Amino acid sequence: MSGPVRPPLTMESIDGSVEGRPINTIKVTNGDLSISGTVATIDTSGSGGSPGGSDTEIQYNNAGAFGGDAGLKITTKGGGGTTTIRSGNMLLGGGKLATATANGFVSLISDGVGQIFLTSGADQGGTFTDTQVNIFANTNTDNAILNFRDSSNIENGRITLKDDGNLEIKNSVSGKNLFFQVTGSAGVTIKQDATDTDSTLTVEGNGTGLPKINLTNNTKSVTLLCDENQKLKVDGGVNTFVFDVSSASGGVTFPDGTTQTTAASGASFPLTAPDGSKTAPSYSFSNDTDTGMFLVSAGILGIAVGGDREIRFKQDELQFDGGGGSQYKLTTDGANTNILIQPNTGEASIEVEAGGGSQNVKISGANGGTVSFNGNYNFPVSDGSANQVLQTNGSGTLSFADASGGGGVGANAVSWPGDDYSGSDRTSNLYSTNNGKYSPSMGDSSYNPSSTDVRYWPYFATNDGDITKMQVRSGSAVAGTDCIVGFYNSGTGGLPTTLIGSATFDMSTTGNKSQTSFSSTITTVRGTLYYIGVVFTGAGSMRGPSQSIGLLPIQSNMTNDRNTCVGQTGSSGSLPASFDKTAASLKEITGPPSILISW
């Protein structure tokens, strides 16, 4: 309130003294002003007085007067961030909430089921992200402890960063566990903070207490423990395995008390397993449990593939056992790789036999390949024409060709009777162009060629190998005359082809003539058709043996010592390198030659 004051102005003092001075203006700043008529009253009875209590105590309304309390005061007058107020045994200010007494306690108490939050914020303009709570020790040689307790127990559990630097998590309630629990498929990881440094998990028993690890859930459990130095036990409750690493020969002790010290030693060899079946083999694989080995029955081992019994091993038999129509292959996994069946000693044979009835046995080369025996004989891949026979090209390849006549020849061992045909050697096994047969009825037959042309007689070899000796008998002495005997291959139409080799006999005197030297090696194959060519360089004759063993050639017509052969003109007393069928014709002669052959 303001306005002019009319004189005269009278000042009355209610409490205090009045000093005389000129007063031009009266201001009321802390009190009540009331005007009644021409009297203005200023009442300041409620706005003043002396502070209560002691110094630094915060004033409060004490029954209408100022009051102070020693438990409510300003302990630090900082004029800002360091100002601290004490309330009871608590100090608040200077960025802290602290006890006001030595070794005092500070409690943050919520009511009922209320909660206490330690959180950062943004009330003063900061950025609210992480919240960090520190358990603060004075130095790193002091303990920093987060304690869990109740109203009657001062310690139920604690987390302590100990004065030695180790962090200890402790459950102090007797018989109770310490759980690390996660949700979902997450796991519990213990990781070394320093890069490329080992992490160690230690389970330590107190004093002589046993260190144990229990692996358990609601229905399963197993225990790992160490109750002896450098020995790990796996305890299943009934059976226990012991892994002894105290020495290189420690080994593994099984529940039955036996110990295996190396991979080659064992508890009880032979190791046994249940019989198993084709769908659940006794020995299988983690990624393919229906493939493996099992026992079909006593003495029969089975190999199962894909849940089906595929292969059986018996004492003397390998058996493929599967569904009808199955085809089984014995193959190699790689190009140019062979399968060899070979005995340690003696001979080996492979027998291919049908299972019974009218079943067939088939041997075929895959993808159009040939079938080969002994690596030498390659059979043709397709059938020939009717009535054709197999023939060789001399290099191991067989083919079908028209039959050229002839027959099989028996095998006989050669025993050369000596340089001449003595009576005591009459029963020796001799070979001649008469198929190796003796013909005593022919007597002392004689072959007298009428010219120096070549004569050819067909001959089926009766032995395999190189010819080592030939022998003829000269019937007349003609100076300067030789007899040449040669072997020819046969070819198309069963006719002679090329000369293989020959032997030359000196016919200038009579008697038996032997020859072991040939123009070329003469090698024969038993049962193969050859031709024996005979030629004289001049007049001469060839006779049979003197002991009435007439060894005659194979002949198409033989009556009264007459014989049919193939003759070739123009040869002029020598054997041609190749047979010329244009100069050849059939000849009928008297007295065929006798030639003895040895391998």
Oligomer: single chain
> Based on helices, strands and strand pairing, what is the structural class?
mainly beta
Q: What distance lies between the first and last C-alpha atoms, to the nearest angstrom? A: 165 Å
How much of the sequence lies in strands comes to 25-35%
Instruction: Please work out how many helical segments DSSP would assign.
Output: 0
**Helicity, as a percent range:** under 10%
Strand order of the largest sheet: 12-13-14-15-16-17
Mean residue pLDDT = 77
Q: How many strand units?
A: 39
Question: Rg from C-alpha positions?
Answer: 64 Å
Shape: rod-shaped
Query: Main sheet?
Result: 6 strands, antiparallel
Low-confidence stretches are 405-444, 545-560
